[in-house]
Every structure is written in structure tokens, then in C-alpha cells.
UniProtKB/TrEMBL annotation:
Keywords per UniProt: Ion transport, Signal, Transport, Zinc, Zinc transport
UniProt cross-references to Gene3D superfamilies, sorted A to Z: Nitrogenase molybdenum iron protein domain
Family: Belongs to the bacterial solute-binding protein 9 family.
Record-linked PANTHER family: HIGH-AFFINITY ZINC UPTAKE SYSTEM PROTEIN ZNUA, HIGH-AFFINITY ZINC UPTAKE SYSTEM PROTEIN ZNUA-RELATED
Designated name of the protein: High-affinity zinc uptake system protein ZnuA
Xref: Pfam families: ZnuA
Species per Swiss-Prot/TrEMBL record: Paracoccus niistensis
Region: Disordered, residue numbers: 127-157
InterPro entries tied to this protein: Bact_metal-bind_prot9 (IPR050492), ZnuA-like (IPR006127)
Length: 322
């Protein structure tokens, strides 16, 4: 009985001692805010198994023109890093970032070394374009945004639609997160490598799907697809709206009508949020096919799989116009 009582006392003392030990806490994942769904997907892939980023601009909203809600302001105030395309896509973000996310680091993807960039197309119609290997060099500054007026208008901001850019950005995102959270650096690096392989598969699938439409004559509602066209060897005949989605004027519509007639354009890519009546106005009495395509991927579930599926979905829309 004495031995049993001693053992019981020892167990009780051990339990008290264990309870008093302060175990090392696992590092919390960084608090990350992203601008658009495509960037959210890339960051989600890098953070998979560690944490999840916050999305600022809902997939169905235009990144060119968006009014922040109170819940968005809270996200920015809490952020440790904001990862976004850049002021070329959403110039309105500069002011709230300066006022609400003063302490947050910023990763502007369009300004990163190696990023493939193309000049914005401004005319209603454009001849088949060549890629000039333009690269917008990184500034190396992650603590503030440049003013939107300093040359940003010359760059087409829809660079996420070149999947090679997605592959370029994954390790850069991993590096930025690792700097904030070294404990998970190996996870971020491995996830970025796996994500790049998944983008390669999406590119292969898309290239195969588009083999039958390489000569397709089409116009787009919103000039957002230049990067996709270049990557997959396609050439749009024109765009109804500018790359910032500004509504077209009568002269632009008249120019497009002439182009449609001259090239025998047979397809129009529309987007869910835009007015189909404008497409009908451009094509007038011409018999055409339309395909709904969404460069923002608003119909796709958010998360790490969204970005490769976005690339596949744009290819599928074009294929359906054949």
C-alpha cells in the first residue's frame, strides 16, 4: 500500500510538472492579403498546408474599378503582406494601402524581375502582334507603391493570363512568405515547385485543346487576353473595350465593324458582367458565335486549383467558338 501510494504521489507530481511546462508555440502563418482571385490562387498554392490568404477584390468585381467595404479595410489593417498585380491593374488601391496597410510589406508582381510584360493595346483593332521580350524590371523596393502616373499606363496589366508568369511568380511568393515565416520556408518552396508543375500540365492541356482554333478570327469584349494570345499563338482581331474595361465610343465601334467585315470575324468572346447588346451592335447582321470567357475566373472555386483551371477555362471558351 505504501508503494502504491508513493507511485500515485509521483504520478500526481509529474502531472503537475508537465502542466506547468510552457511548450514552444508553432509560428503563426503570415497574414496575407491578395488583390484578385488568380493571385489568391497562386498564394493559396504556396501556403497550402500552412495557412490561407485573404482575397480583397471578389472574383465577380472589376479590379479596375472597385470600392472597398469595411471588411476589406479590416483585412488591410491586419495584413503583414499584400500581394497584388500592381497599380497598372488597380490604381485606386494606392490610397487605401497607404492609409490602412502602412506596416504591411507589398509584393507587386508586375514589377518583379523576369516577369513577362506587354505594352497595352489602345486601338480598337490591332495587327497580329509579336512578343518583344519586354520585361518590367523589379525595383527591389517592397515598402511603398509608385504613383500610377509614372509610366504604368503603358503596361497591359493582365499578365496573369500568361501561365509562364504564374510559374515565375510562385517562387517569388514563396520567398516573400519565407522571409516573414522562416519556419515554413521548406513548405513554401515545395508547394511553389509543385504548383509550377500543375501549371505546366494546364498549359499542355490548353495547347492541345487550342490546336483546332489556331486560325480562328475573333474579337474580344475587353482587351484582357493579349498575354494568353501570345502564349498560345492566337491573334484577336480587335477589342470592343479598352484593357481597363472603359466603354467604347461610336468611332471605336465603327472601326470594329470595318474590321469584322474585312476579316470575316466569326467569334466574339464576351464576359459575364458586360452588355451583350454592344457585341450585337458591332456585328450588326453578321452571323457569329459567342463564347463567355472570364479572365477573373469568377465562376471557379477559390483556392490552389483555381489558377490552372482558369487557364484551361479560357482555352475551352475559345475552342467552343470553332
Amino acid at each position: 500500500m505504501i508503494q502504491s501510494g508513493a507511485e500515485e504521489l509521483l504520478r500526481s507530481l509529474l502531472a503537475v510538472a508537465l502542466a506547468s511546462v510552457v511548450l514552444p508555440a508553432w509560428a503563426e502563418p503570415p497574414r496575407v492579403v491578395t488583390d484578385i482571385a488568380a493571385v489568391h490562387s497562386l498564394v493559396s498554392r504556396v501556403m497550402e498546408g500552412v495557412g490561407e490568404p485573404e482575397l480583397l477584390i471578389p472574383a465577380g468585381a472589376s479590379p479596375h474599378f472597385y470600392a472597398l467595404k469595411p471588411s476589406d479595410a479590416r483585412k488591410l489593417r491586419d495584413a503583414q503582406i499584400v500581394i497584388k498585380i500592381g497599380p497598372q491593374l488597380s490604381p485606386w488601391m494606392d490610397r487605401p494601402l497607404t492609409s490602412l496597410a502602412q506596416g504591411a510589406q507589398r509584393l507587386r508582381l508586375l514589377e518583379q524581375p523576369g516577369t513577362i510584360t506587354l505594352a497595352a493595346r489602345t486601338g480598337a483593332t490591332f495587327e497580329p502582334h509579336e512578343h518583344h521580350g519586354d520585361h518590367h524590371p523589379g525595383t527591389g523596393e517592397e515598402d511603398h507603391d509608385h504613383d500610377h502616373d509614372h509610366g504604368h499606363a503603358a503596361i497591359d496589366p493582365h499578365a496573369w493570363l500568361d501561365p509562364e508568369n504564374g510559374k515565375i511568380w510562385l517562387p517569388l511568393i514563396a520567398k516573400a512568405l519565407s522571409d516573414l515565416d522562416p519556419e515554413h520556408a521548406a513548405d513554401y518552396s515545395a508547394n511553389a515547385t509543385a504548383g509550377a508543375a500543375e501549371i505546366d500540365w494546364a498549359m499542355a492541356d490548353t495547347r492541345a485543346a487550342l490546336a483546332s482554333v489556331q486560325d480562328l478570327r475573333f474579337i474580344v469584349f475587353h482587351d484582357a487576353y493579349q498575354y494568353f494570345e501570345h502564349r498560345f499563338g492566337l491573334n484577336a482581331a480587335g477589342a470592343i473595350a479598352l484593357s481597363d474595361a472603359s466603354p467604347p465610343g461610336p468611332a471605336r465601334i465603327a472601326e470594329l465593324r470595318e474590321r469584322v467585315e474585312a476579316l470575316d470575324v466569326t467569334c466574339a468572346l464576351t464576359e459575364p458582367q458586360f452588355d451583350l447588346d454592344l457585341v450585337r451592335t458591332v456585328f450588326d447582321s453578321h452571323d457569329i458565335k459567342t463564347a463567355v470567357v472570364d479572365p477573373a475566373g469568377s465562376a471557379l472555386p477559390l483556392g490552389p486549383d483555381m489558377y490552372p483551371e482558369l487557364i484551361r477555362s479560357v482555352g475551352a471558351a475559345l475552342t467552343s467558338c470553332n
